[in-house]
Every structure is written in structure tokens, then in C-alpha cells.
């Protein structure tokens, strides 16, 4: 009986984590501005002080769950699809 309770609690925690992750994925919409993480520089010491995020891109198309096609601000579509984990919303400053 105690094992069943532990399994149910563990399953509930997994469900909560999955639901939280799903809500993160849904927050980005077509047409929004995003930054792309420079994963190639993540472990490089020579790029320690350089920016970790690439210029703003526009979400061109949402493919499968968590995969996005992007385009540059001058309308060039990026061929490589990008995973949601490498994106963050870009906020335009109001001066």
C-alpha cells in the first residue's frame, strides 16, 4: 500500500513538471521577437565575455511541439529549425 502511494506521488510530480513545460512552450506565438542562445559558445572559455544570445529573430512558423522556424528582421527565413529551449522572448526597449 505504501509503495502504491509513493508511485502515485511520483507520477503526480512528473505530470506537474510536464504541464509546466507545456505552458512554457505555448507562450511563444508566430510573429513574436525572440533571441537564440549561442550553444556553440557555451563551454568555450575564449568567448567568456561575448554575448550569449544572437540578434532578435521573428517566429516564422511553429512546427511540432517545441520546434520553431525563424526569420530575420529583413524577412530571410532560417533553414534550421530551433528548439524552444534555445529561445527566449525579446523585449523592445521604449526610450
Describe the structure.
By secondary structure, the protein is α+β, with helices and mostly antiparallel strands. It has a domain at 29-89: SH3 type barrels (Roll). Helices cover 26% and strands 26% of the residues. It is built from one helix and five strands. A five-stranded antiparallel sheet has the order 4-3-2-1-5, with no helix packed on it. A hairpin with a 4-residue loop joins strand 2 and strand 3 (67-71). The longest helix is centred in the N-terminal third of the chain and has 25 residues, at 2-26. It is elongated and about 60 Å long. The chain starts with a helix and ends in a 6-residue tail after the last strand. The mean pLDDT is 86. This is 22357_t:CDS:1.
Topology of helices and strands:
Elements: H1 2-26, E1 33-37, E2 53-62, E3 67-71, E4 82-83, E5 87-89
Antiparallel strand pairs: 1-2, 1-5, 2-3, 3-4
Question: Could you list some keywords that capture this structure?
Answer:
single chain, alpha+beta, SH3 type barrels, five-stranded antiparallel sheet, 22357_t:CDS:1
